[in-house]
Every structure is written in structure tokens, then in C-alpha cells.
Amino acid sequence: MTVQKMDHPNDGVKCSVDTCYYYMNGDFCTAPRIHVGPHGASTAEQTDCNTFRRK
């Protein structure tokens, strides 16, 4: 999932993955929306941010 990067943080998303293209200093995300999966996950460890894109 590729989305356009915003020039300001998405106030509703906190992210500490500094290797992501959408990461902004202060642990913010600049993606206008995110997708978390997969279907059927039952623990946090089973989830992934499908919006992640390596810098």
C-alpha cells in the first residue's frame, strides 16, 4: 500500500519505526491513513503495519 506522504504528522497515529518512509521526528507518522493487518490476528505480536515503506 503506497500512499502520499503528508508534510505534517497524522495526529491520530503514533509511530516509533524510524526506518519507515512515513516516520517523522517525535515518533509521528506522515501517512494520511494506515492499514494494519492481517485478518484473524489475535495478539499485538501477530499484527503488522501494511503501510510500512522502507526509507
What does this structure look like?
This protein is an all-beta fold. It has one domain (1-55). Helix content is 0%, strand content 15%. It contains no helices and 4 strands. The chain has strands at 23-24, 28-29, 36-37, 48-49. It is globular, with a radius of gyration of 11 Å.
Short description:
By secondary structure, this protein is mostly beta strands. Helix content is 0%, strand content 15%.
Task: Kindly list the characteristics that best describe this protein.
55 residues, mainly beta, two-stranded antiparallel ribbon, 4 strands, globular
Overall average residue pLDDT: 95
Number of helices: 0
* Overall geometry: globular
Strand-pairing-aware structural class: mainly beta
- What is the number of beta strands? 4
> Which ranges are low-confidence, i.e. pLDDT below 50, for 5 or more consecutive residues?
none
Distance between the termini: 15 Å
Largest sheet: 2 strands, antiparallel
State Rg.
11 Å
Strand-residue proportion: 5-15%
- Helix and strand succession? EEEE
Whole-number total of structural domains: 1
